[in-house]
Design a protein that fits this description.
Elements lengths: L5 H17 L4 H19 L5 H12 L1 H12 L4 H28 L3 H26 L11 H16 L5 H28 L9
Helix pairs in contact: 1-4, 2-3, 2-4, 2-5, 3-7, 5-6, 6-8, 7-8
């Protein structure tokens, strides 16, 4: 769903990408800096209960995930290594965000929500793994209710609003994300199964 917004975001980020490229900064550097900033901000701010400030800082660094792609297309510097690095560090960034929330819920004695946040972390990794494994086997798996952009938006928006004092929004967002992630895993498993085990034609009577 959020892929529809990518062209507009690309247009906004193109001037910045062009300026960074002129300075000799590679897309891989932006990828690494974005991930490092995301993880550091999540583990610093979230366990302290500074959810809104943390979300704003994390959002700034998450934009690097789009900026590196803009720079790669602009310079023609895209590579297999770059794609692998970007995908791998995406998982690291996601783990940092939800780990920060888990720590906050434990510190604030909200054990149930700590479990839900942990489930979101694990389910998000499984969603990504199913797709990667399917594509490695030569199948497609670009389906699902909650892909990474949707998971990030729901998680960060609910955390940010929760930090502003909106009641129940963080809990509701995490429960929604947990359910959507579980559904997405199921959707992808079924999609891959249909490709791996084609339906046999019924015999003629």
């Amino acid at each position: 769903m959020l892929k529809l917004l990518r062209p507009a975001v690309t247009r906004v980020l193109t001037p910045l990408g062009r300026a960074l490229t002129r300075r000799g900064i590679s897309p891989n550097v932006i990828t690494a800096v974005g991930t490092l900033g995301t993880v550091a901000a999540a583990l610093f701010f979230y366990p302290r209960g500074q959810l809104f400030v943390g979300t704003m800082v994390i959002t700034f660094f998450v934009l690097a995930d789009l900026l590196d792609g803009v720079m790669a297309r602009m310079t023609g510097a895209g590579s297999t290594w770059g794609a692998f690095l970007d995908s791998t560090l995406d998982r690291v960034g996601d783990a940092g965000i939800f780990s920060g929330l888990v720590f906050w819920f434990i510190v604030s004695d909200q054990r149930t929500l700590a479990g839900v946040a942990l489930f979101c972390l694990v389910a998000g990794a499984v969603v990504s793994y199913v797709k990667a494994r399917a594509e490695a086997l030569g199948m497609t798996c670009d389906v699902g209710l909650a892909e990474r952009p949707e998971r990030l938006v729901v998680g960060l928006v609910s955390a940010g609003l929760g930090g502003l004092g909106v009641p129940y929004i963080l809990a509701a967002g995490l429960w929604l994300l947990a359910a959507a992630s579980a559904v997405t895993v199921g959707q992808r498993l079924l999609h891959v199964r249909r490709q791996a085990v084609p339906t046999s034609p019924r015999p003629l009577r």
